[in-house]
Design goal:
The structure holds 2 protein chains of 2 kinds. By secondary structure, chain A is an alpha/beta fold. Chain A has one domain: Glutaconate Coenzyme A-transferase. Chain A is built from 4 helices and 13 strands. Chain A has helices at 6-15, 86-94, 131-137, 198-204, and strands at residues 22-25, 44-47, 51-55, 76-83, 100-103, 107-109, 114-115, 140-144, 156-157, 172-174, 178-183, 186-192, 209-217. In chain A, strands 4-3-2-1-5-8-10-11-12-13 form a 10-stranded mixed beta sheet, sandwiched between helices. Chain A has a 3-stranded mixed beta sheet with strand order 7-6-9, with no helix packed on it. The longest helix of chain A has 10 residues, at 6-15. In chain B, strands 1, 2, 3, 4, 8, 9, 10 and 11 form an 8-stranded mixed beta sheet that branches. Chain B is globular and about 50 Å long. The chains are: A alpha/beta, B alpha/beta.
């Protein structure tokens, strides 16, 4: 079995983002998706701090402290992009105007509950940012994460043990092993990596998986 | 003649009182009114409740205000950052109260205050720790949480240009919370790079109408050299 690298997961997510989509990429792992968006598609990247039409990182020396992304890194604005204040930005998110958001996760449950903002540990300082707004607001919520924790536990779980970000909000999960849809009938495997079998994937996953009609190797 | 410009940063914040609720614009360093915050530190008001998206970066601006122990409580969405060591220390020592609010609820609660809304139902946070104990309602089959406005005594914001009537335009993503905070505070104080004559701002592109702004102070060209956090 050949696990996907983080960049390969990002490239796989990027393949599913269509021409004309309004997209928010969460901080952390999902920001990698921007590097893999097909060049022949016009896709609008939204940044929660008031930017539509976000472009790539600026060249060295061209950084502008007033032009940053949600992770507070310097970015650029594409020709045709625009700025707006925070209430408008979150109206775009909460109001169902974004086609896709891509979020990292600690855990996703079999019913699409998402936990990605807080470990709940006694010494942890909680920080939520825009995660809860994205989770309930975008038309499609994609999660991008490693299939298992560093200690080998499945991050796809029956019930999230970490504090929730949103209930039943995740539509599709992209991991280093598989692409899995959250459906009313359960988790349906869309594809998995070369060299892995469905039974092995099932063994590495904490909850029962369904086979889609045609499961293709990625 | 109406002239909302004040001649010094010190004069702009002179009447901020102990125990006041103060909104501070900015998302990280972008849009943070660092010069007004420095003036507030020098002014000495304490036991403040601060409303900001974050809880300070590095040792300057909002972080310096926290470090000076002037803040009793902070209402924010994202306190923990790689360079939030001042807040982290105070929080772990139990020396600052934190009200953590999902960012869209923070923005909408501020907007609601400025717009005269008594409360609103939002789907954000339903079923999570951050909605615990809050009133909920099912509307058209969807779950919502009741959230209340956040009002302030003062708002300190940063804009690019303003005129003596208080009309403001901003610069890039430094706009962020500025317009809504201006509307939600009894006294909104804007620092600008430049005060321009009436009519110099295109009325079609004014972002914050002067009705929301009580004081405006020019600080000269922005300190653009500061590193991006």
């Amino acid at each position: 079995m050949k696990r996907l690298t983080r960049d390969q997961i990002a490239a796989r997510v990027a393949r599913d983002i269509q021409e004309g989509a309004y997209v928010n990429l969460g901080i952390g792992l999902p920001t990698l998706v921007a590097n893999h968006l097909p060049k022949d598609r016009e896709i609008f990247l939204h940044s929660e701090n008031g930017l539509l039409g976000m472009g790539p990182a600026p060249a060295a020396g061209e950084e502008d402290e007033d032009l940053i992304n949600a992770g507070k890194q310097p970015v650029t604005i594409l020709t045709g992009g625009c700025f707006f204040h925070h209430a408008d930005s979150f109206a775009m998110m909460r109001g169902g105007h974004l086609d896709v958001c891509v979020l990292g996760a600690f855990q996703v449950s079999v019913t699409g509950d998402l936990a990605n903002w807080h470990t709940g540990g006694p010494d942890a300082i909680p920080a939520v940012g825009g995660a809860m707004d994205l989770a309930i607001g975008a038309k499609q919520v994609y999660v991008m994460m490693e299939h298992q924790t560093k200690s080998g536990e499945s991050k796809i779980v029956e019930r999230c043990s970490y504090p929730l970000t949103g209930i039943g909000c995740v539509n599709r999960i992209y991991t280093d092993l598989a692409v899995i849809d959250v459906t009313a009938h359960g988790l349906k495997v869309v594809e998995f990596v070369t060299g892995l079998t469905f039974d092995e994937l099932q063994r590495l996953t904490g909850v029962p998986l369904l086979r889609a009609a045609e499961v293709l190797p990625a | 003649m109406i002239d909302k410009t004040v001649q010094s940063l010190a004069a702009a914040v002179a009447d901020v009182f102990d125990g006041a609720t103060v909104m501070i614009g900015g998302f990280g360093a972008a849009g943070q009114p660092a010069e007004l915050i420095d003036a507030l530190i020098a002014q000495g008001a304490k036991d403040l409740t601060i409303v900001n998206n974050n809880a300070g970066n590095g040792e300057v601006g909002l972080a310096a205000l926290l470090k000076a122990r002037r803040v009793r409580k902070i209402i924010c969405s994202f306190p923990r950052q790689v360079d939030s060591q001042v807040f982290d220390g105070l929080y772990r020592a139990g020396e600052i109260e934190l009200e953590l609010v999902p960012q869209g609820n923070l923005a909408e609660r501020i907007r609601a205050a400025g717009a005269g809304i008594g409360a609103f139902f939002t789907p954000t946070g339903y079923g999570t720790l951050l909605a615990e104990g809050k009133e909920t309602r099912v509307i058209d089959g969807r779950h919502y949480v009741l959230e209340y406005p956040i009002r302030a005594d003062f708002a300190l914001i940063k804009a690019l240009k303003g005129d003596r009537w208080g009309n403001l335009v901003y610069r890039k993503t430094a706009r962020n919370f500025g317009p809504i905070m201006a509307s939600a505070a009894k006294c909104a104080i804007a620092q600008v790079s430049e005060v321009v004559p009436l009519g110099a701002l295109d009325p079609e592109t004014v972002v914050t109408p002067g009705i929301f702004v009580q004081r405006i102070v020019a600080i000269g060209a922005s300190s653009g050299a500061r590193a991006v956090a």
